[in-house]
Design brief:
heterodimer, A: mainly alpha, 2 helices, elongated, B: mainly alpha, 2 domains, three-stranded antiparallel sheet, 3 strands
């Protein structure tokens, strides 16, 4: 591998989105996703 | 070949709840707390994870009553997950992990005359994302303040194929509830299925909101494609073989590039295509003929 120019943008993006992810987890959004994904929403899939 | 196997494994892992014929219900375990990297309906009887688009719409649809009740759930968990994946690999999950993308590639193998897709249609997925995933679920609400999952309800062909049709087979009593909404979704699915035969990954290129999100990261992700203009002869082999119809020599990290690496591994004879990982250039740009020589040693 050849070392090229260093670029910060991808790392800043990773830190930013990791922060959002942790805020979401801390806010209890994981259980909301679980609750949503374990229910069958018939109208969501075009039935009813 | 490696990519094909990874696609098979990812499709299986995303849909590996095989007890549904016996339980008559969808998987309800804790794995559904995690978002799948690709488009895979969580109402599919075999689905083991949560569709990020469905989860995101649900956050938007319930944001108003949630705020009134004191819950500050903005979908940051889902946005963070997608942003993290995008920052690392751009649209690579579309090319390697998405079950619906995999299906489109398989259907495109059906022998027929093949057609391109006008470039302008590649931008349709952005208004689809903004309108059907964010704005409409949030803005149009019922008397209690709840919105709808507009993309799932009116467009998503993956949901129709993976959840709508199987649920009707699994629970015949649901047939009584079929109406114009279902026929509309069947029509959308049918049109895309036919389009898949003639054009490569049309849903990914034109209408997928998940691809639209990942595509925003293609130019700034850790994994990026590199084009060497000195080696490139513009023979267009990469364009001819690209499942997304990308002209690599014009736009190396194009919004539609799913990083399948077909251009690098199977098309370019001149070593003009390679990739880099955070500034470390992978010295893979030796061309398919060069690779054949190396393998023969």
């Amino acid at each position: 591998m050849i070392i090229q120019e260093k670029e910060k943008t991808p790392f800043l993006l990773i830190i930013f989105f990791l922060f959002l992810l942790l805020v979401g987890i801390n806010a209890g959004e994981v259980s909301t996703v679980l609750e949503t994904a374990t229910r069958i929403c018939l109208s969501c899939i075009g039935i009813g | 070949m490696l990519r094909r196997w990874i696609q098979v494994i990812a499709t299986f892992l995303s849909n590996s709840y095989l007890l549904f014929p016996f339980t008559g219900n969808i998987y309800q375990g804790t794995l559904k707390s995690f978002c799948t990297p690709g488009l895979n309906c969580y109402s599919c009887p075999a689905a083991t994870g949560a569709c990020p688009l469905g989860a995101l719409q649900n956050f938007m649809a319930t944001l108003r009553p949630g705020l009134q009740a004191g819950y500050q759930h903005f979908g940051l968990y889902v946005i963070g997950t997608l942003g993290l994946l995008g920052s690392i690999a751009g649209r690579m999950p579309c090319g390697w992990l998405c079950p619906f993308g995999f299906l489109q590639e398989l259907i495109h193998k059906i022998p027929s005359r093949k057609f391109g897709i006008p470039r302008v249609l590649s931008y349709v997925k952005y208004p689809v994302l903004i309108l059907f995933v964010f704005l409409l679920p949030f803005l149009i609400a019922d008397e209690f303040g709840y919105g709808m999952t507009w993309f799932c309800k009116f467009i998503c062909p993956a949901g129709t194929l993976e959840a709508g049709i199987p649920m009707i087979i699994l629970k015949p009593e649901l047939q009584a509830l079929i109406g114009i909404l279902f026929y509309n979704k069947l029509l959308i699915l049918g049109l895309f299925l036919i389009w898949m035969i003639f054009s490569g990954r049309p849903f990914c290129r034109v209408a997928c909101p998940l691809g639209a999100i990942y595509s925003l990261f293609n130019k700034h992700s850790i994994f990026r494609m590199i084009h060497d203009p000195e080696k490139c002869t513009r023979c267009m082999e990469c364009h001819k073989n690209c499942p997304m119809g990308v002209k690599f020599y014009e736009s190396r990290n194009d919004i539609d590039c799913v990083r399948c690496l077909k251009c690098m591994n199977e098309s370019c004879k001149f070593g003009a295509i390679s990739y880099e990982i955070t500034g470390f250039k992978e010295s893979g740009g030796q061309g398919i003929e060069g690779k054949a020589v190396v393998r023969g040693q």
